[in-house]
Amino acid sequence: MSERNGHVIPHRPHQDRARLVEPGGSLDLPPELLATTVNGMERSAQRLGRALVVVVDDRAAQGEQEDSIGPLVTELLEEAGFIVDGTVAVAGETVDIRNALNTAVIGGVDVVITVGGTGVSPRDVTPDATSGVLDMPVPGIAEALRASGLAAGAVDAGVSRGLAGVSGSTLVVNLAGSRAAVRDGMATLSPLVTHVIEQLSGLEQA
Known about the structure:
Number of helices: 8
CATH topology of the largest domain: Molybdenum Cofactor Biosythetic Enzyme, Chain A
Strand order of the largest sheet: 4-3-5-8-7-6
Number of strands: 8
Radius of gyration: 20 Å
Number of domains: 2
Low-confidence stretches: 1-29, 33-47
């Protein structure tokens, strides 16, 4: 943000200027331009909204193993501009997963990302639990995640049974459990999530 797309900022006396300091440098802005920039950033952050991460892992849920994937998802969500309410670890049980999702929806978060339990083993029941919560499936998101994951070499993402859809006014997305699947999935997901949230909140312009 050290460049302003070719716009020339007129010279102002020092006392009339405000300084916006960012990593890697600083930029002097006239007060009215600074106000416009800050207001735009606030509106953007407001559109992105709140998120919750649900990690489906038996050992993490029982405290036998530290959750290492939840912090990664949280970091990627925050980099995308979301406020993350927290991370919840649950066992691979349909009731536990569904309860976590329903709690998030009732709590009014804009997006819930589940991680793990999307394969074909007997304990992989995240999609089954999710299907009972969704009001409106959005299959295109799940298809995009599988296609990009497979192309990126994340095999568990490529063969994932994960779902995506809307419950109330909350977008719910299942990601496969590997770090590669999470990183690729979040990169694919970020612009799609923004679009869906804007539509759900009525901000999308016709």
